[in-house]
Write a structure and sequence with these properties.
mainly alpha, two-stranded antiparallel sheet
Amino acid sequence: MSGEIPSLIPAMAEIVLGLGAMALLMFGVFKGQDGFKQAVQIAIAILVVAGVVLFTHVGGERAVTFGGMFITDSFAIFTKLLVLIGSIVALLLAPAYLHLHKLAKFEFPVLVVLATLGMLIMISANNLMTLYVGLELQSLSLYVLAALNRDRGRSTEAGLKYFVLGALSSGMLLYGVSLVYGFSGSIDFDVLAQTIESGADINMGVLVGMVFIISGLCFKVSAVPFHMWTPDVYEGAPTPVTAFFASAPKVAALALFIRVVVGAFPQLVNEWQQVIVFVSIASMLIGAFVALAQTNIKRLMAYSSIGHIGFALVGLAAGSVGGIEALLVYITIYLTMTLGAFAAILSMKREGVMVEDINDLAGLSVHNLPMAIAIAIFMFSLAGIPLLAGFFGKWFIFKAAIDAGLVPLAVIGVLASVVGAFYYIRVIKIMFFDDPAPAFDNAQSRSISMVIGISAVLNSPVSFILISPLTVAAAWGASALIF
């Protein structure tokens, strides 16, 4: 860099979030817990401004700064916008729940903004050290959020489990980084892509390091066999935090996954493809079969997310631009399905007490038909029923796998979808055909009702109209990646 001042333009969204988080922290310190509502509103405004700043790069041209460590392109812009949307919706869903459980602390929006900053850095990482800095900034914020309810045993347990297992995964990732650097002499993605050659000349140390890095990233996306933390953390963390975990961090981690294997190891596609195929199959099958035994709605959504990560990784396993395009379509649809489902879970409240058992939904269609219809749309979409948004996501994913010659992987994915459809349809059966349980409280926050309504529309047959512009946007995002 020779003392040259790096351009800050490609990182303006991150700078906005960093400065905004510091200002928000000072606001909270001086205002105290009475300023929670305003803190949430300011946090949402900061995230919106960061999203607007991203549109200054609407052309999506590749821009690299900080000595090649940070990159902005169409892929980064597409996935960053998804992350910002997920974070904004999580903040909209949180206040009613946090006030009810006396957790309305200004630290919550600060931590969400800091976690989002880490996610955006992850997505723009063009260097293994930038990757680690972004990953840890996100992770440290999420550890605290998981244990936000310190007076509840399950919440503190969730935070502790997430922290311990997260530290283990970080150690694996760092060990992989050290191996890659030791055997290749670089941690820069562009340099690695140029120096690593395929075939007999591949250094075994680089391959082992790549596997360790992939293992560390599998933990962040809740992929089998590094999924152990997911059900307990989803169940124990406050529900708005769980909604946040299930949305924005998943998008960011998948984007980072793509950035690493495609940006740093494109010539080793035959090697990492084998690992991705195994992880994808294991995640789809474990997610489908273990979810059958769940009675807690949040644990059900945890195993559902594991299964959906398996489906998303099918697109990465295809090892093509078409596969990445399908993955981007899939995670966009997954974001709408998941946020809608968790908004509905936040409405499961009886006499001021949150309930989480699936059987508590019994007869919901009698007491609140619009809510039952909305949940049915989310469940059918998650199952991939035709004409709903989830069907189109799986269609593009499986098509990409077939085009890449991975027909057995696509067949296993379809079979896992059939198994998964059972537990989604079971929820619908309980709502519409079981004897009614006591009614839920009718009072809902306006933001929760808005999220449920918009998500239900986006996942309804109306999605048939929206899928074409989505595929165009996903193709624009994927065009930045070269295999």
